[in-house]
Amino acid sequence: MMTKVGIIVGSLRKDSVTKLLAENVAPMFPEGVETEFVKIGNIPLYNEDLDTEENTHEEYTKFRNTMKEVDAILFVTPEYNRTMPAGIKNALDVGSRPYGQSIWDGKPAAIMSQSPSGLAGFGANHDIRQGLVFLNVYPMQQPEAYIGGSYELFDDNGKLNNEDTKSFLQTVVDAFVEHIGRFK
Ligand code: FNR
User: Fold this and answer.
1) What pLDDT, on a 0 to 100 scale, did the predictor assign at position 184?
2) pTM (whole model) above 0.90
3) CATH number of the domain at 3-45+57-181, please?
4) Which GO CC annotations does the UniProt entry carry (predicted)?
5) Ligand 1 center from residue 133 Cα (angstroms)
6) 119 lines ligand 1 (CB under 6 A)
7) Phi-psi group of 179: left, alpha or beta (phi > 0 → left; psi -120 to 50 → alpha; rest → beta)
8) Is the minimum distance from the CB of 18 to ligand 1 under 6 angstroms?
9) In whole angstroms, what is the distance from residue 180 CA to residue 73 CA?
10) Is 150 close to ligand 1, i.e. is its CB under 6 Å away?
11) What pLDDT score was predicted for residue 20?
12) Residue nearest to atom 28 of ligand 1 (CA)
């Protein structure tokens, strides 16, 4: 049976390094695992007034329906002010409602953070982990993926140019596929 991994990218800008990283990682998944980039940039900030029984914002419904179809989630994120970017927090909130119908519940996940700095998005990575605990998502523990010095890792065509990073990321993907297998 096909496994579907939803990839959520924390940066919304078109020249995002996080997006580049995610685009390089997606083809590392083996046959039998499909990846889908799930867009979060058009989801309005969570507001219960836009989420009533009579009237739910169409972007909330669209996101929830997409996420219901995925078996696992890969978060690829930059760090904003030592925390996760607001877009990811908003996606977590929107997906968690209506109460009792969370689309996150019980799903496995993995988190990759990147930064041009050496701290490699550690704060964002763990900020997401904190939210996932409450949402009953199972983030892979090891290997952790903190990608530092990210501006130096890509060639002019946006391809990873560092063999050590490529091989490390492949190790992370392989472990994630094994992790997902525990929940099937
Ligand atoms: C940043 N940046 C950043 N970097 C970091 O390592 N720790 C941080 O706390 C922050 N804070 C921060 C806040 C805001 C609002 C912005 C826009 C940026 C720098 C960030 O790592 C850098 O811009 C990355 O290139 C962002 O990822 P994308 O957009 O290239 O994917």
Assistant:
1) 81
2) yes
3) 3.40.50.360
4) cytosol
5) 24
6) yes
7) alpha
8) yes
9) 9
10) no
11) 98
12) 16
